[in-house]
What we know:
By secondary structure, the chain is α/β, with parallel strands linked by helices. It is 30% helix and 27% strand. The two termini are 29 Å apart. 40% of the residues are buried.
Amino acid sequence: MIELSGVTVRFGARTALSNLSARLPDEGTVALRGASGAGKTTLLRVLAGLLRPDAGTVTGLAGRRIGFVFQEDRLLPWRTALQNVALVSDEARAKELLKRLDLGGALALRPAALSGGMRRRVAIARALAFSGDVLLLDEPFNGLDEARREQAAALMRASARLIVVATHDGLDAQLLGAHQTLELPPPA
């Protein structure tokens, strides 16, 4: 069980998360919902260890590998699709995932030569190749059509014991099999 207790995060005078307490299961999918600015991305960054809360604690993540699909694709422009995914895994696993996401013909292309949806799938493949216990997803299906969303969601569901997805789209949560929703209050 992952437990958040009194988690508060401030950026200067702006409070992104205020005294948030919640329990997340060890398995399944949890959807983070809330208005823009409610702190969904901030919470994912805290869970990933990329941001320390100003107050409160997060327990239950020690020793777990965490994969992350950020809102931005964050691909290295000088690397090919295959090289971007192989950064976190071996080349065989990277190829397999890219092919399963219908990118087998784009292995040697750099991000500038890929469409937005293709770049998104490369970013997804990279997070999956990391083989984390926990998969954090921040608006993971931006730029993907319905068929690609379903394809990516199926791979994601099979890849991690726990998925935490920040989304404005209830369909995304449904595709990922969310069984729990954590509503974040509107920004103050």
